[in-house]
Structure prediction request, 305 residues.
Amino acid sequence: MSNSSSITQFLLLPFTDTRELQLLHFWLFLGIYLAALLDNGLIITTIAWDQHLHTPMYFFLLNLALIDLGYISTAVPKSMANSLWQTRAISSAGCAAQLFLFVFCLSAEFFLLTVMSYDRYVAICKPLHYGTLLGSRACVHMAAAAWAAGFLNALLHTANTFSLPLCQGNTVEQFFCELPQILKLSCSDAYLREFKLLVFSTFVILGCFIFIVVSYVQIFRAVLMIPSEQGRHKAFSTCLPHLAVVSLFVSTGMFAYLKPPSISLPSLNLVVSVLYSLVPPTLNPLIYSMRNQELQNAVWKLMPR
Prediction:
């Protein structure tokens, strides 16, 4: 039985062993990564620069863009470097740091999406109380709570996971240090130490997801009662993109972390991990700005500068 402290490096799962496909993977991930950096960076710059966008909705959107930058920057650059240099190794410290940052961004994004659903609920269902319930101080506190909850969750999982004795070698069946794949390397009896923490995190995530669903049920009920067709269209165009992001993020993320071992195939793991680690940070800026005329106008004003 070897402890995780005695392992100096881990071996990540490559997408392919063919050199041409490795280079294709590098250029494909590079294009996705640059697109995510450009889109999220543009949203951050636009919201910070335009005074008209200093509202609660755009404040939370700015925080989401910041999290997405960290989210996609945790796993993608290392995967591209491995394909370019034909290596699979990542140091033990690097793996722990990657796991911590990934779980931190993953958790913080989910908590922030929960806060954003509350923002949309108050804006549509209780518009007269919007300024009171979502003042500047309340927005800062809710955003800080999302970041702090993500940090605490990542710290607990990382510390607990890397204190487990590892009996199954050092080969991680994923292109980055993913929590379920690291746990598969631990001893069966030691896994119970992390199991309780996973159950607690699952209940917290489930509670947040139920809150999001209830919020949108109330939102859609209120929207259907709006007499103006233009008003209904504006409300749906604001809420449906948010719901699409949450659905994709939650469904793929929960499948990756809660799927039974019987269907844990390397190829399936790669596809699911790409869906929940690359797609949301890349598409979030496009989805939120595609139907938002106010944000589009602010971007066009910023372009000549």
